[in-house]
Model the fold of this input.
Amino acid sequence: MTLYNVSKSKVREWRRNNYQSKFPTISEILEFNFNPETGNLRFLRKAQFEALETYWYLRLVEGTPHIFDLYKRLYDDPVELFKALNISISQDDLIKIMSKGGIDSIFEKIRKDDDFVREYKLEALRETLSLRYPSYILALAMGAGKTVLIGTIIATEFAMALEYPENTSFVKNALVFAPGKTILGALKELSDIPYEKILPPRLSKEFITLVKFTYTRDGEKDIPIIRESSFNVVVTNTEKIRIQKQTITKSLIRDLFSNSSQEDVIKQEVANRRLQTIASLPNLAIFSDEAHHTYGQALGEELKRVRQTVDYLAEKTNLLVVVNTTGTPYYGKQILKDVIYWYGLSQGIKDGILKEVRGNIVAYPEVEDEHFIRDIIIDFFNNYKDVKIYDGTPAKLAIYFPKIDDLRNAKPIAEKTLVEIGLDPSIVLEVHNESKDEIKDLFDNRINDPYLPYRVFLLVNKGTEGWNCLSLYATALARELKASNNFCLQAASRCLRQTPRNIHKAKIYLSKQNVKILDSQLKETYGETLQELNLASPDLRKERLILRKTEIPPVLLKKKIRKVIPLDKKVDFKQIEIQKPEIKTQESKKTVYDLKDIPDRKGVLITHKEEKLIIEEDFVDVYSFAVELSSLYRLSLMTIYERIKELYPDGEIPESHAFEIRKQLEEKLKNYDITEEEVEIALALVKPKNFNKEERDEKTIYTTEIVYHKGQENLLLKYERFKELNKGWYQLEFGFHYTPYNFDSNPEKDFFEQLLVMLNEDPADIEDIYFTGAKNDTDKTDFIFEYKGKDGRWNNYTPDFLIKKKNGKMLIVEIKAEIFRDEAKEKAIKEIEGLNPDRLKYEILVTDRDEIGFENINKVKEAIYEYGGKNARK
Done:
């Protein structure tokens, strides 16, 4: 039995015993992560919470053991120990070595004898044995939230350190190695975690107050933290904090030496300065999201560099623990020995955190590039042309090539195919090492901008590990890819990451040569075959939705509509002059007061002096701005980029300047006028003709199908079952204009149930109530409102509930957690409320809990029973 299976059994028993330890606060923290009423996790996913439990079991129950000591403790039988460590050596060698010193001599041989290690493929085990500090691997499939898990462990460690200040065994500082060049992304993800949903209120407030997030910056010679301080989270990567001077660039130290002979000395000094700053921090933990770099196939120079850095810190400071996260826990078809928790790729698909790919892995025979490229592009747009993710970003396709020449030969084929199927060939973007820096920056850092025009990416040595494109639905591996370890796997699996409310499968296109490569890499890194991945399916459920009420009167509202009137005007962009705006620097003043008691004067604050304040504004980079303008006005990207770059050669534009340039272009390029008028409209709550029409028991019914994940089953509310369970009081036929209602959250469901109880006791003059938040298809309903987002684009919005009174008055109710509130949406409905003051009221109910709460339900109660004046019921 593997270590992670044994650990799982031990943790399960610990959970049954209410997480007993010498430190009862950990029980409070872990139990807080569950909602006591629903039994569901508040924020963390199941895999994240189980990994957190396992970590704290080892820390508190097992005493943070060295991984090899943990093996010896759990496997007291030498035969079982050898099996668990996957030591399989010849009988002759076994007898010969053990005769010189027993079982310990075997492990000593592994530590010191290179030939012996190579012969029996024990490289990974040697690394485990050679570590001088506790180091664990938490292996979670991509998309399971490894960065959030790291942040959760740090938060709980800091909370325990604050709770038990006299105990020196808890972490007070954290160094986080982010993969590749994703430092800022990891920093943002760590700082954005809702820690109030992980730690109880009394602990989360203190943690949020004291924690300091920072990162290693290219232009700074040290790390911006106070030496020997506590509660720091430093985010870096292996390029920016290593013991080697070679990682220090000349640009970083150009002001520190006057002749080239000093360069090596200065580089070593800067490298040491960063490490010394980290080494000064007490009670340190190191977190690495690069475990697959430092184990297994990478047991070479990369491992030596990282290990040398960690070994240095272990020697110079109080290093309590090293935590590695990875999505690839296998080496040579064997699970790495340091893995204490494992959550596989297939399990991720079943739990809905990865897209399903069942039946969508397509292998092509040995065909010419033209046929291969043509077919995958046609097939992709046949299946995904209109597919969008939650923020409106259209589905994307990535095609991987072994060489740039292969890519350039394929690009004209891709563009020609797009033209043939009626699409703009400019949606193709090639990205490789020879691409311009602006292109590489867009690809690495702005790929999730919903307004990027690109949908087909042609890639060489790009788009694998660390590339997180949320709208990527398909990958294609052209020709045989042997660029690097696991490249084929990393490329193929990029499209599996799931997005909210997605019901579409991912798709992988393979040339025949790549099928065996992908299959073997899956087996080696995940312990799963291509067939197993192809068979894995998420726990998605389907439910037939039936319209119960088809004769619903339309909602009558006054609304402002804008009309766009086209003009017969031709504009040549080349003739348009873009002027750099002249905007004065914004200034303000701060007033400094003295405290002075003057007779016969009421106040004691006397103005001492005034000081000027210069207000610094944010900047946008030139390339991102050019992409936006290109998309808005259908201009050539590189043409507009070059024009803007001429005005701003430093590559950054103040936001106020960007706003003015947009206005300039809008005035010069617009080929229309906009008029606005107020009209009364009739909005259909449901459009039965666009549902599926069926005959049942000589009656016509209207149906459609909804898809939901098994974990959301508790949010479905069926009319028949609800009526049966509540027949003692549910007598009035309010609500359920269709069944089942598929709520998005527990507060929505709680609000609806409480509203029914209230109205069954006193229906007042309520005509009916409708849950409208789950229907946002314009074919099924007109009850959809437009709002202008921060980006200036128009979006659709469907409120959660509509309550109609018999006198024509209405109440729209929106339920949101504070962090999900959207000012633009609220403003749009409030404007309509202002146009309909005598018939419409809009209430926003804010809750961060699973129940709606007394204050919120009371707001609605007042609106229902006192609408139009105190106790009025007209």
User: Anything to note?
Assistant: Residues 570-670 form one domain. Confidence is low (pLDDT under 50) at residues 243-260, 292-303, 867-874. The longest helix spans residues 146-163.
